[in-house]
Design goal:
By secondary structure, the chain is an alpha/beta fold. The chain folds into two domains: about 140 residues, Aspartate Aminotransferase, domain 1 (Alpha-Beta Complex), CATH 3.90.1150; about 260 residues, Aspartate Aminotransferase, domain 2. It has 14 helices and 17 strands. A hairpin with a 4-residue loop joins strand 11 and strand 12. It binds pyridoxal-5'-phosphate.
Length: about 400
Amino acid sequence: MKAVAGKIPFEIEEIRKDFPILKREVNGHPLVYMDNAATSQTPQQVIDAIVDYYSNYNSNIHRGVHTLSQEATDKYEAARKKVQDHFNAAHSYEIIFTSGTTHGINLVASGFASLLKEGDEILVSALEHHSNIVPWQMLTAKTGSILKVIPMNQDGELVMEDFYRLLSNKTRIVFINHVSNALGTVNPIEEIIKAAHEKGAAVLVDGAQAAPHIKADVQALDVDFYVASAHKMCGPTGVGVLYGKEEWLKKLPPYQGGGEMIATVTFEKTTYADLPHKFEAGTPNICGGIAFGAALDYMNSIGFDNIAAYEKQLLDYGTEKLLEIPGVRIYGISRKKTAVISFNIEGIHPYDIGTIIDKLGIAVRTGHHCAQPIMDYYGIPGTVRASFSFYNTTEEIDKFIEAVKRAKTMLS
Ligand SMILES: *Cc1c(COP(=O)(O)O)cnc(C)c1O
C-alpha cells in the first residue's frame, strides 16, 4: 500500500501499525474507517497508557498521602500541562478537564446565566452542532437574552457581512465552531474574535472538529474559551478540555458543587477552591485525562503540519473521485475545509448508501450529523459523510468510491 501520489509527509504504513483496530474485518472485508469526525481511532500508545493506569497506579487524586495517589495526581497534573502546552495556554490552571465538548459548552453557558440580563444578545452561527445551540437556547430562556444567528451560504460558509450587521454593543458572547462537523468548513475565527472583542463581547470557540486537524494557539487567537473532546483526537471518550482565560474563569460561578471544588465547607457557608479545581467537582476521569495527554503526545509526534498536508491530499483525491460519479452533490465546498466530504446522490436516501457500503466494510456516517439547521438550509434530510484522518489512505478512498458506485447501481 502506498500513500497519496506526490509527496509523502510521513510513513503511512508505520502509522497504521499503531492502530490495532485497523487490522479488523467488517462483514468479511478489511475495515475502512471513515467516520473520524464522529470519533477517531485509538493508537496502541494511548491504549498502553490506559492499561498502565489500571494495572499500576489506579487511585484517587489530590487527597491521598499514599504513593499510588501521589503517582496518579502527578500523572494527571502532567497531562493538564500537556494540554496547556498543546493549546499554548498561559497557565495550567486555565485548563479545565471536562467530560467533553458538550460539558465544556454547558459549563460556560450555565455560568453566563449569572452575567446576562434581559435584552442582552448572544450570537451563534448557522453551522453549529446541536451541542453549541441547545445550551444557549436554555440560557436565553433563563435570562431573557436574545439568540441571533449568523447565516450561511450555499458553499457552506458563514455570511460575514451579516455577522458584522448582527454584532453590536448589545452582544455579550459569540459562540462559533472552529470547524463545522457536518461540512468541514473552517470558520474565520480570528476575524470573528477580533471584531467581537472590539464590541466588548466574549467568544467561545467549539474546537471539537478542529482539534484533530489544526493546532489552535489560544493566546495568539486571543480567544476567551476554547473547548474540545479527546475522543476526536486519538484519545478516549468521556474526557475533554475547556480552556478559559483566567479573568473569565474567575468571573464565572462554579458549574457543579461537590468534592474537589471547595476550599472550606460548613453548613452556613462554603468557599470555593482556586482554579482549575473550582470547575472540577467530584472524582474526575483520571485515566481519561492521562490518556488524553498520551494522545496529544502521539499526535504531536506525527506533527500537525504533516497531518494537515496529508489530509489535504486525501480530501482533494476523494473529492475529485467522488465528483466523477454522476448525480453526486457535495455539500460544503469552502476553499478552507478539513478532510470531510458530506454528499448525496440524486434520488437516493443517504441512509441506504451508508447501509450498503457498511456491508463492504466501509464506515461512514449518515444523517443530520447533529446539525439539523444546516440540513434544513439545504432542504435535505441528511447526507452521507466520509471524514478522513491521517491514518486513511488513497487505496481506502478507492474502495469507498467503488462501494458508493455499487450502492448507486443497486439503489437506482
Ligand atoms: C463532536 C462535536 C461536538 C460534541 O462533542 P462531544 O464529544 O459529543 O461532547 C460538538 N461540536 C462539534 C463541532 C463536534 O464535532
